[in-house]
Amino acid sequence: MPAVELTNISKAYGATQAVRNVSLTVEPGELFGLIGPDGAGKTTLFRILATLLLADAGTATVAKHDVVREFRAIRNVVGYMPGRFSLYQDLTVQENLEFFAAVFRTTVRENYELVRDIYEQLVPFKDRRAGALSGGMKQKLALCCALIHKPELLLLDEPTTGVDAVSRQEFWHMLSTLKERGITIVVSTPYMDEAALCERVALLQTGQVLRVDTPAALRESYPWPLYAVRAARMHPLLQDLRAYPAAHSCYAFGETAHLSLAQPDAAAEAHLKAYLTAKGHHDVSVAPVPATIEDTFMDLLQTHHSAPVS
Ligand SMILES: Nc1ncnc2c1ncn2[C@@H]1O[C@H](COP(=O)(O)OP(=O)(O)OP(=O)(O)O)[C@@H](O)[C@H]1O
């Protein structure tokens, strides 16, 4: 029996269809990612799973309980870390923890073992108001609060948005430790490097699931020959690459342009260099690169946009 099962879930806010016919399962003990840009429907899905919002259509179960009929049972086994405003800003670190423990009729001491590693990092700040913590510390406290009643399943909505790179890394390390303890984790992120740390991910766009797979399978499924191209001037480079007759797609990727070709071309590097030099570009470099999850996502978005919405 899956830890989470969504079947044809849909939800609209007035005229905005936030989630369309989403079906997916998360296995017990899995670290599962919901990946998508702002507005993709991630928060809406979390709120439905956390029994805080009713879907318009479809069914969902969490830890074998139906989200509508058995919402009370779900609240005891789920730890939910919303994207924003989950902490009481005017309470101290210690008071926030005690408050969340009391809501679940437990104590920090009773569940200390599970939160110890995270709690120890918070001890130097235990008398500081939550509102005065750094982003990384807020995030650790929110995770601690979500864990205080020993949930079977953690729902983490963009836990690393607005957090510095070191804290993000530490956070993902904490998630792998919690996973080793058997906790199922569903986490959303707009960051593709974090998607790669999940066991499986669902790629979401405008409320629809474009694909569910492992990061490796997503990378390997990329169908086009792909090249990283650099030149002295990025903006005209992108324009000229998009006009390249053999181009399938082209977009900025960090400090390079990623160009995919519609057909394999054994001499692509030489052809591209000649083309760009003739267009007046300097310091041109072209190298074949393996696809990342982001490349696969971009490709799925393009296919999705050119197909009618069902
Ligand atoms: N209470 C609401 N009233 C009206 N529209 C809403 C409401 N909540 C969300 N939406 C809209 O529903 C869509 C999905 O929003 P949702 O918050 O679920 O996406 P998300 O992927 O979590 O993005 P974000 O990171 O921006 O929250 C968006 O178009 C959003 O503007």
From TrEMBL:
Keyword presence, Methyltransferase: no
PROSITE patterns: ABC_TRANSPORTER_1 (PS00211), ABC_TRANSPORTER_2 (PS50893)
Keywords: ATP-binding, Nodulation, Nucleotide-binding, Transport
Domain ABC transporter, residue spans: 4-231
Transmembrane feature ranges: none
Superkingdom of this protein's organism: Bacteria
GO molecular function, one term: ATP binding
Pfam families for this protein: ABC_tran (PF00005)
SUPFAM superfamilies the UniProt entry points to: P-loop containing nucleoside triphosphate hydrolases
InterPro entries named in the record: AAA+_ATPase, ABC_transporter-like_ATP-bd, ABC_transporter-like_CS, ABC_transporter_ATP-binding, P-loop_NTPase
Transport found in the keyword field: yes
Family: Belongs to the ABC transporter superfamily.
Protein name from the UniProt record: ABC transporter ATP-binding protein
Species assigned in the record: Hymenobacter properus
Taxonomy of the source species: Bacteria, Pseudomonadati, Bacteroidota, Cytophagia, Cytophagales
